[in-house]
Amino acid sequence: MKKQGYNVSRYAGISILLGGVLFIIATLMHPPATNPWTGHHVIAMISDMLVYWQWDHSLMLAAVILWLGGLSMSESFAVNRPAARMAARLFVAALTIWVLVLAMELTTLPSLALEWHRVDAGTAALGAGLFAFGIMAGDFAMMLAWIGIVLLGFSLLAEEAMKPAIAWAGIAAGAWGAVGIPAALLLPEWSIMIYPVTSGPVFLWTLVLGIWMVTRPRA
User: Fold this and answer.
1) Residue 85: burial class (beta carbons within 10 Å; 0-12, 13-18, 19+)
2) What's the pLDDT tens digit per position in 60-75?
3) 60, 23 contact by CB (below 8 A)
């Protein structure tokens, strides 16, 4: 690999690892709100934890920018492969959706929460709908990212840039994670258990990818 491509790959790996660590912290800080149909309850809580809510979602914003931004540089370490190029575009699409969702959660939901005790039924329904939209849009963004991991795994496998077992693990984990998204949306009461089981393995694989990008020797 040329020096420039190697450096970009290394910086992308650092970005993935930093973003991944921040993502874990922000997720652990976040209230357990994975069911899109619990908007009335969650919005009512926001006013009691407004500063905490803003800090957590600001941290989440930084996390997804670093994590998905690093993954979007996949063309630099899986070159000349249509699958890698498509994966990079899916990561960018996922990042775009996440930024819009988090912007809404940092502005619209807190504004509604501060007035929640005196809004009319129509406004309350709109607020609950916005919350459901945010949950589902974020889920769809993650599904795009997991499909991107599948494509990236195939690209790395074809290039023989990574040990086949690790590449296949990424492909399998990405597919499992993508299937878990609609499963969680169809079974919202179980979503808080479905997400860790289905998305956890592929998320951890992205951290393995980041370590590999940072530590691998220059070709």
Assistant:
1) middle
2) 999 999 999 999 987 7
3) yes
